[in-house]
Amino acid sequence: MAVPERLPLAVVIVTYSSGKVVEGCLRSLDAALAGAGPARVVVVDNASPDDTVERVREVAPEAEVIQTGRNAGFAAGVNAGIAAADGCDVLVLNPDIRLAPGSVLLLRQALALPGTGIAAPRLTGETGTLHLSLRRRPTVPRALGEALLGGHRAGRIPALGELVVDPAAYDRPQAVDWVAGAAWLVSRACLDALDPLDERYFLYSEETEYMLRAGAAGFAVRYEPRAVAVHLGGEQSTSSRLWALSSANRVRMHRERYGRPRGQLMRLAVGLNELVRAVARGGEGGRRHRAALRQLVPLREWPLLPGEEAASPAQTTDASRISQSQTTKASQSQTTKASPAREAEVSPGYVCFSAQDWWYHNRAHSDFQLMRSVAAHRKVLVVNSIGMRMPMPGRSTQVLRRVGRKLRSVAMLVRRPLRELPGFYVMSPLPLPFYGSPLARRVNALLVRAQVLAVSRALGLRHPVIMVTIPTAWDVVRPMRRRALVFNRSDRHSSFPESDRPTIEALERGLLERSDHVVYVSTALMGEESGMTGDRAHFLDHGVDTDHFRRRPESEQPADLRAIPGPRVGFFGALDDYLVDFDLLERIAVELPGVSLVLIGDATVPMERLTRHPNVHWLGFRPYEDIPAYGSGFDVAIMPWLDNPWIRHSNPIKLKEYLALGLPVVSTDFQELANYADRVRIAADGDLFLDAVRETLRDGGLQPAETIRGSVLGASWSSRAAQLMALAELSPGPR
Question: Does the predicted model carry a pTM greater than 0.85?
Fold first, then answer.
């Protein structure tokens, strides 16, 4: 294919201390330009302290050398070269590029295709190894995907990775969002239509921003694999300073394109990426990632140019942050002047750090139920779980699924999910759950606190009652101004199998010793910890929504349940491997072949071991709104718990939900069941559990359904919330 009649060509090479590599670039040009017509060579030198300029003049005496007199960055150098090449298409090259023979002709042919504004070659290393140079548009989910999965794994999933990793993609010409900017040919039409490269970036992201801007203006970025360029590269991967600058500029570019709120989300995602690598690699291997974190927390508005003196912290803070700080100080000043009597008149709002996630966990959990009832009287912000440990292959199950659902939750930002409760808000902060590292804990606390404070202030929650259910929130809430701090001690989280036990125990201890009130649902746990809590400990039993959990007639039960033959032994709730005895479930399936075992809920383990049995029916997750209709079709409700510290200190909400439905219940033993022995058959081991199921199928349970339901009618969540509010709001006031 011949090159259509085109404008002249200029090759622009930007140099800085490039004496060792620029010769090879210049020497490759003659063969690379074969068939492409004559070209001007413009070398823009950014005040190199070495012999770069002398070498350029020696190797390519015909080249035009522009000496800027200062190192103003790559974008400034490219802009200077473009300005000197008026009327030309421009091929931008790094000085460490070696173009293959005939490659420029191929790029010019690609540039001639309709709608194309930029053409880029295939990049390889010196040995011919492919360099992954194709990129998708940067987004927060992609940055999070790369942080949690790694760039190459995330790149296999377009929605979760920016880097194109499929080798087959590099064998075909195609339009792409952007390419690594070591070598790219730009049409004069594109140059004339767009503003110059943004020089504020100094280095990195300037070519990304320009190519995305070109695409938005209708100029395609086209990849041409037949054109090949060898890229020596590698400096960024060995220089902590350059690595940190690259990470920070990713955030700056997102901020400039989409505004500060989305820029902050990108900052959190990129920070997570660097934190993961800093923790995983440690020592020298993590040095560049620690350097990036230091640039991201806090983040300068724009990088300083070489030679500029470091500004004071106040000078490095952008104007909007200064304004926000002044506003905050003013509000604090006004608060200080307000009288105690005035503050006592104002009913406090509530901020609850939940151990669950509203968007994918069962909403029957106690913190959700309590806060919904509180929201009938007070403004409430529920902060979805910030986790206790990052899911990792080898120590966690279903890693990709768990990471994916958390990313989807974070994308929900702040919402009011319940129309009937306009004062009930749910937010999903982006956490960095690496609690085993002191540095990671500090960074995570700072980032989560900043997000929660921003939302709280927007909602007018200046001195809320703070309720903490998950111990990892202690680092976050410790310095927060509040009316009172309530530790909702629903479980001993340090017994969670995936947790870093010493770290979580220390966080639990901090909450137990420093909270104004500690509320328990387990008398066993309350007794064990009485030495740390004293008279600050209170038993606050679970409630139940008796209006919601009422028996439905068969005609109102779901069709998929009615299709399952009876008798039905059922369970609804999370099928977690640290809670549920799956061996016992399989025994039920095998030893009671005439019974249908119905399981409703998300599972953290593969379910094939159970579903291979014909009488096991796993229906998966069902919405909270539908759970009573499913439970109404059970003949026996079961709680097949493991015998471990987590269960021994528990008080499952589902027990009251089963009872509110009037269901006969069979359960493995734990201390809180002592008060329910008249209504629940309690089994000390697997054999006795199976016997109890058989007996209950025969006699229908220990008491009639109406009596069972009547025993929990006084245990409403609204009454539990009233107890909580009375307790929390008797505290002395803001502090």
Answer: no
